[in-house]
Amino acid sequence: MATVELRFSAQPEHVRTARLVAAAVARRAGVDEAVLDEVRLAVGEACSRAVGLHRSHGITAPVSVALTEEEKAFSIEVGDSVPDPGADPAESGAPDASGSCPARPGSEADGEGEDEMGLAVISGLVDDVEVRSGAGGGVIRMSWPTADAAVRS
Question: Nearest Cα to 131, choosing from 21, 42, 18?
Answer without folding.
Answer: 42
